[in-house]
Design goal:
- By secondary structure, this protein is α+β, with helices and mostly antiparallel strands.
- The protein contains eleven helices and nine strands.
- Strands 2-3-7-6 form a four-stranded antiparallel sheet, with no helix packed on it. Strands 1-4-5 form a three-stranded mixed sheet, with helices on one face.
- Strand 8 and strand 9 form a beta hairpin.
């Protein structure tokens, strides 16, 4: 848990927590398992009214945050959404909004994203590619220059929130290097194929671009902006995963005090105390590494790429290990459909593989240190 939280940031956290408890309890999350979008657009617009979609956008483009440190505020929202395994395209919409705001806004699109009326998906990952977590490597999709603009070809997968998205921000190899292009999801030549996901609360898809024509104005930044998007997405994901494991640890400790065997609470057994102590240490380390990554990206630190990957590698490994341990501590009920712990394990497992696995991020740290 952060120790340097301001009064304004506490307000962001508490407001988000109350809103999610009221409007998106776990019963509502379960109800949306079979929903094509996986979330309610009306609910998402209400979240946008709380500022969820504007925190990474400069004030001159209609954005802004309560404290002026947008990513720190948004990370608190992400952590609270992790605590409730909440649905909604928080990371992709905010990454796209941040990049549009920084690279020359498309006023109508950005305005729609901030209002919650428009949803955008960030198409960066590619199937079977290694090194997609760096802007200059692993990008097989191409963008060819034409007299009227660009022709985009390639496949992106998995793409969060592509189903139901209004716009797609796709990375591709242009003649001058990696770049990103804002494309309407309804453009000719785009095929969006839903994918099955281990996480019932998130929707992913494979997006194929076949000679998709876009205008010259569609380009959104270059390699540095792709890298910025990666850092933002991974930092938010780390914050969300910390919220997941914090909540699981909390209700597991509570269960251990409530559950008794032979007249004693489970939490009173020395062997279990040792396990809880280990998990508490890992949890606080996850909090610290996630906070370090968020702070570095917020400050645009030269070490941001390295610290983000350090956090992703550590949290990715520890999160699933901790939750699996908590499943065992619950006994038989921990492996039932009715218990909520599997929802948290699913979210942590998918997060562990999205935007790079722990192995990918350790490789990235090694490459950055060797550069």
């Amino acid at each position: 848990m952060r120790l340097d939280v301001s009064t304004e940031q506490e307000l962001v956290r508490d407001t988000t927590r109350r809103f999610l408890a009221e409007r998106a309890p776990l019963t509502e999350v379960r109800r949306l398992f079979d929903d094509p979008l996986g979330y309610d657009r009306a609910w998402w617009r209400q979240g946008a009214e709380l500022g969820w979609t504007s925190m990474l956008v400069p004030e001159e483009h209609g954005g802004g945050s309560l404290t002026g440190e947008g990513l720190l505020d948004l990370a608190m929202v992400a952590e609270e959404m992790g605590r409730m395994v909440s649905p909604g395209p928080l990371a992709p919409v905010n990454v796209v909004a941040a990049l549009l705001g920084a690279c020359g806004p498309r006023d109508k699109v950005l305005e729609g994203l901030i209002a919650g009326d428009v949803v955008a998906a960030w198409c960066v990952a590619e199937p079977g590619a290694n090194g997609t977590w760096g802007p200059a490597a692993g990008v097989a999709s191409t963008a060819e220059r034409t007299s009227a603009g660009w022709l985009i070809s390639g496949t992106k997968s998995p793409v969060e929130a592509a189903v139901g998205a209004d716009y797609l921000l796709v990375s591709a190899r242009a003649p001058d290097g990696p770049a990103q292009f804002l494309v309407p999801a309804t453009a000719a030549g785009i095929t969006i194929t839903p994918l099955r996901s281990l996480d019932f609360t998130r929707r992913y898809a494979s997006v194929r671009f076949e000679q998709v024509e876009v205008g010259a104005e569609a380009i959104v930044g270059g390699a540095d902006d792709v890298e910025r998007g990666i850092q933002l997405a991974v930092a938010l994901q780390c914050a969300e995963t910390v919220g997941v494991i914090d909540r699981v640890f909390s209700f597991t400790v509570e269960y251990a005090f409530d559950r008794s065997t032979f007249g004693r609470a489970l939490a009173s057994y020395q062997a279990l105390k040792h396990r809880f102590a280990d998990m508490k240490m890992w949890l606080e380390a996850c909090h610290a590494t996630a906070a370090g990554a968020v702070d570095a990206v917020q400050a645009a630190s030269p070490d941001a790429a390295r610290l983000v990957s350090v956090a992703a590698a550590y949290i990715g490994d520890r999160s699933t290990a901790m939750i699996q341990d908590c499943v065992q501590l619950h006994g038989g009920i921990g492996i039932t459909w009715e218990h909520d712990i599997h929802l948290y394990l699913r979210r942590a497992t998918v997060n562990r593989a999205t935007y790079g696995t722990p192995h990918d991020h350790r490789e990235r740290v090694a490459a950055l240190l060797a550069a």
